[in-house]
Amino acid sequence: MKPDKLFLEMKLIAEKLDITVSEQNFRKSGINIKSGFCKIKGDNYFIIDKDLPVRKKNEIIAEFLSGLEYDNIYIIPAVRDLLSLYDNR
């Protein structure tokens, strides 16, 4: 499966888990920021640097998602295989 499609599928999984994935330009901030999970006013966000290569974005979001409970969500086999590489539950 193409990296762009994998990324979109993982964004959908995050949405099903009530997590909004937001791609932001970290370069404008002027401070050292890393992609990751945060809560803002009770809402769940996973913020990722939009300037990263899509393969790196896939690694980052797969590592995050692999630590969550997603067993009750249908996940296409290619994405499930990728998540299993990072599974730390």
Report on the structure:
This protein has a 3-stranded mixed sheet with strand order 1-3-2. Helix 1 (3-16) packs parallel to helix 2 (54-66) and helix 2 (54-66) packs across helix 3 (77-86). It is of the alpha+beta class. Strand 2 and strand 3 form a beta hairpin. It has 3 helices and 3 strands. The chain has one domain (3-86). It has helices at 3-16, 54-66, 77-86, and strands at residues 19-24, 36-40, 43-49. The mean pLDDT is 91.
Biggest β-sheet: strands ordered side by side in the sheet: 1-3-2
Mean pLDDT comes to 91
Order of helices and strands: HEEEHH
Share of residues in helices: 40-55%
Domain tally: 1
Strand-residue fraction? 15-25%
Going by helix content, strand content and strand pairing, the class is alpha+beta
How would the global form be characterised?
globular
Number of helices: 3
How many strand units?
3
Oligomeric status: single chain
Report how far the terminal alpha carbons are from each other: 25 Å
Radius of gyration: 13 Å
Low-confidence stretches: none
Short overview:
Helix 1 runs parallel beside helix 2 (54-66) and helix 2 (54-66) packs across helix 3 (77-86).
Task: Give the secondary structure arrangement, pairings included.
Layout: H1 3-16, E1 19-24, E2 36-40, E3 43-49, H2 54-66, H3 77-86
Parallel strand pairs: 1-3
Antiparallel strand pairs: 2-3
Helix pairs in contact: 1-2, 2-3
Features:
20% strand, single chain, 89 residues, alpha+beta, three-stranded mixed sheet
